[in-house]
Write a structure and sequence with these properties.
The complex is a heterodimer of chains A (about 110) and B (about 170). With about 110 residues, chain A is an all-alpha fold. Helix content of chain A is about 75%, strand content about 0%. With about 170 residues, chain B is mostly helical. Chain B has helices at about 10-25, 30-45, 60-85, 105-115, 145-165; strands spanning about 95-100, 120-125, 135-140. Classes of the chains: A mainly alpha (about 110), B mainly alpha (about 170).
């Protein structure tokens, strides 16, 4: 394998690992609020890494210009925080249960 | 000027570039439809436009973006550590971050940054009245030292944003 192929494989593995860990977080963490942290962070980095692997493959290995991956990353970075923000707002509105060790529950808005 | 097709040159350019990148080509059809859309979309949505503070220091903004990218990597390792640990050792918490920023655009960027980085998700802007001092309610995955966290968020993210947009100083 060439260096490029090693690089691409490495990026793919790291990406897959982080996406997996993000999903594990969804499965394992105790309440809605903590589960939200998995997809906003681990999955963002995992997907970023996969996108980077795809860019390296198309632009350097096949030597064709390909910019769509940049857009995927851009849209992801714009939409992930907004989605998380809306989800947690809805969760607070519905007064979902929090894990019993949660601190600062008194800071939640009353309505 | 506000109603002209060329009211937002930067936005039009960005739309045009995104359109070309989406098609991954510069054939005449793509270029022509790109120009038309880049002019029409900002014009159609002009009613939603609000005047926002402009980025004053592009160099600093670039550095800020790179720093955030790096912080995303670090934040991920922290989250992974927490995810693989035991649930009973978990110390999640809500924190109020006092804000010096007031303008919607920098605030949005701050909230998005906080969401993508250090084990925090922005939850709510409090209170909603315009002139009261505002707070950002955060949910923290693993809360160890509240005061230190607030200090770090303010120094690392809010202060540079204030400089970049040259506002509320």
């Amino acid at each position: 394998m060439t260096t490029l192929e090693w690089l691409i494989s490495g990026l793919l593995c790291v990406g897959a690992l982080f996406v997996l860990l993000g999903s594990v977080a969804l499965l394992k963490l105790p309440d809605f609020y903590t589960r939200l942290h998995g997809p906003t962070k681990a999955t963002t980095l995992g997907l970023g890494s996969l996108v980077l692997a795809s860019m390296v493959f198309f632009n350097l290995q096949l030597e064709t210009l390909s910019l769509q991956q940049l857009l995927i990353a851009l849209f992801l970075f714009i939409s992930a925080p907004v989605t998380a923000h809306m989800l947690i707002k809805v969760a607070m509105h519905h007064k979902l249960k929090h894990h019993h060790t949660t601190q600062g529950v008194d800071k939640l808005p009353a309505d | 000027m506000q109603n002209s097709l060329f009211a937002t040159p930067l936005r039009s350019t960005l739309l045009f570039l995104v359109w070309c990148a989406l098609h991954n080509s510069v054939s005449p059809v793509v270029l022509l439809s790109g120009v038309i859309l880049a002019l029409l979309i900002p014009w159609v949505s002009r009613g939603f436009r609000e005047v926002q503070p402009q980025v004053k220091r592009y160099g600093l903004f670039g550095r800020y973006l790179l720093m955030v990218l790096w912080d995303i990597v670090v934040a991920n390792l922290q989250v992974v550590k927490v995810v693989l640990g035991r649930n009973s050792a978990l110390k999640p918490g809500f924190v109020l971050l006092p804000l010096d920023l007031k303008e919607p655009l920098p605030l949005t960027i701050l909230a998005a940054t906080i969401c993508l980085t250090p084990g925090t998700v922005s939850a709510e802007l409090l209170p909603r009245e315009a002139d009261a001092p505002q707070f950002l309610l955060l949910h923290v995955l693993d809360l160890q030292d509240e005061a230190a966290l607030i200090r770090e968020l303010k120094q690392r993210y809010e202060a540079p944003l204030q400089e970049i947009f040259a506002c509320s100083v």
